Amino acid sequence: MTATVDTVSPAAAPPRAARPHRRPAGRVAPYLMLAPAVVILIALLGWPALQVLGISFRRLDLGELVRGEVAWIGLENYRAVLSDPEFWVIGLRTLVFTAACVVATVLIGLGIAVLMRHLDGFVRVALQLALVLAWATPIIATTTVFQWMFDQRYGILNKTLVALGFDGFAGHSWFGSGASTMTVIGLLILWQAVPFVAFTLYAGLLSASKELYEAASIDGAGPWQSFRTVSWPAVRPLLTMVAFLSVLWDFKVFTQVWAIKQGGPDGDSTTLPVLLYLKGISGSHFGVAAAIAVLMLLILVAVTWRYLRLLTRSPETEL
Amino acid sequence: MKTRSQRVALNTAGLVVALLFFFPTYWMFTTALKKSNEILSPAYDLIPLSATLDNFVTAITKPGFTTFLTNSLIVTLGAVGCALAAGLLAAVPLARMRFAGRRGFVLLVLIAQLAPLEALFVPMYLIMRDADLLDTLPSLLLVYTAFTLPFTIWTLRGFVKGIPVELEEAAMVDGCGRWGVFRRITLPLLGPGLVATSVFAFVTAWNEFLYALVFMRDQSKQTLPVWLSSFRTAFGTDWGGVMAASVVYAVPALVFFLLVQRKLVAGSFAGAVKG
Fold first, then answer.
1. Which chain A residue has its CA at the smallest distance from B166's CA?
2. Which of A159, B25, B211, B249 has a 20 to 30 Å separation from A79 between CA atoms?
3. For A195-207, what is each residue's pLDDT tens digit?
4. A48/B123 touch (CB, cutoff 8 Å), yes or no
């Protein structure tokens, strides 16, 4: 930021005598304006987060919770979680699932954004309306609809497949195996996540001026070349941003996974957030759940480390 | 220039994608309009032959519906309002002013978005219990405000940065005070940004299930997502009833989206990404 409305110098640099005197109000103003947000964030996110960290070193089952007992057990919870082979299976599954969802979401979103730019007015509005509807429908409502569409006996998908001649799908259960269940959950997440990505990237494409495309086509650029030289630079930062946000969202997805099959069949569609819920809320092992939460945060930071560093370093964001 | 056949192909592709995204919504509506014996029939019924409002009547006349709807609206709109107010207050200095601790605060906001919210459940429950707020709407309102605030600050900061400083400086030269600049220049230009951000906060709060389920043991304080899940157990596989309930639940979100849709589609999200 080269120009600022308020040029209060950072407190780290000692104010030099040569500088003109500033009103103290100007110094306090930013802190006053930040105060409500800081209070909310510290009281309702920071403090609970610290407590989670504390609880992860304690044994906290229902008994301790009711008695208000504090039993420190060091790294015992972490040892229990990490020595459980199931944790590694579920962790790997969550990572693969997240990666697949993010890649698919971003690619389809980019495809739709590029497509939108080339559509006639009417078709574009129809597409945008369909996307907005998909985006706006609440998660639980959508999840219920997907369950109904994929229903074993009367679901429209099986009926359609049978009508098309694939008789084997009569009574086919889409939730019979972990892989199939995860695929349905993935489609559900895609359906809800693509609109945001498509609209964001579309906005980025629109910000590349028409003149650039015209200049490219005058210079004899084909569609691929003009995409690479004009569209790509315009959407690249956005693409990184939506990919980053998608990683955050898809890694933490709970409602859809839980509502579709509660992590079943046989725990084969359990992801880390579901595991956390099963241990913490159903199983009342709050200490173990807290340890899983801390581990999840560490994984997320590790996965997004490069982008986080980019964000903190880049002069564009200027933290 | 595109040839005619290319245009037809592109538009066809666009329509196919539109239909794919439209289908689940369509299916929700049409199933809700079917009679229960039509729903559970092996007949192929992509296009409904008859319509009935029975399912909607069942859904809406279920006891407590208006209470749940009011609860949901209070909690959601309250959280959106609080998050926008606190977020806007924080976004302006973060985007425009220099002060010690700014970097740290932005980093804090960024990290807050990484936290798995289900994980904060136990301490959150204890806090609300100690504050004697369990079974009250403010507990949910506070939690949803906290959950949506980091993203709100982050996005609004991008939008504020997107407003040319020159405009604000020009207004100051013309004799506007700092408040005048904010009211006459920044706020109007932030309109689309506020709308886009409020959509996110609205959807998050409207959808939230877990905290609503556990904080609200008193039935008269529950919200619509919990109501929808209770509907499913009560009716088993009555898909018509469930779909009608889903439609009723989806309508406020759809209305909210359609109201702001023009501004969304106009590309206001560009501001969200200025970093």
1. A3
2. B211
3. 989 988 888 888 7
4. yes
pLDDT in tens, B139-182: 999 999 999 999 899 888 888 888 888 888 888 888 888 788 88
CA A244 to chain centre: 7
Whether residue A60 is contained in a domain is answered as: yes
Q: Answer whether A11's CB lies under 8 Å from B100's CB.
A: yes
Residues of chain A contacting residue B115, judged by C-beta atoms under 8 Å apart: 45, 49, 297
pTM: 0.82
Same domain, A296 and A220: yes
DSSP A57: T
Q: Nearest residue on chain A to B178, judged by CA atoms?
A: A5
Q: Are A49 and B115 a contacting pair at CB < 8 A?
A: yes
Extents of the domains making up chain B: 63-273
What length is written for chain B? 275
pLDDT at B233: 55
List chain A residues with CB under 8 Å of B172: 5
With respect to residue A271, please indicate whether it lies within any of the assigned structural domains.
yes
Residue A159 contacts B where some CB pair is shorter than 8 Å: yes
**Alpha carbon of B31: minimum distance to chain A alpha carbons (Å):** 9
Q: What is the 3-state secondary structure (H, E, C) of B132-182?
A: CCCCCHHHHHHHHHHHHHHHHHHHHHHHHHHCCHHHHHHHHHCCCCHHHHH
CB contact under 8 A, A45 and B146: yes
A29–B39 CB contact, under 8 Å: no
Which residues lie below 8 Å from residue A302, measured CB to CB, with a gap of 6+?
none
Do A191 and A289 lie in a common domain? Answer: yes
Which of 1.10.3720.10, 3.40.50.300, 3.30.360.10, 3.90.660.10 is the CATH number of B63-273?
1.10.3720.10
Please give the backbone phi and psi of residue B97, each rounded to the nearest 5 degrees, phi first.
Answer: -115, 160
Q: What is the mean pLDDT of chain A?
A: 83
Cβ-based neighbours of A59, under 8 Å, separated by 6 or more: A71, A73, A76, A77, A287
DSSP B183-205: IIIIHHHHHHHHHHHHHHHHHHH
A276:B118 CB<8 A = yes
- Chain B: nearest CA to A172, how far in angstroms? 14
A 74-103 residues inside an 8 A Cβ radius of B: none
| Rounded Cα distance, B27 and B263, in Å | 27
Domain containing A145: what range? 85-313
A28 touches chain B (CB under 8 A): no
Q: Do B24 and A199 touch (CB under 8 A)?
A: no
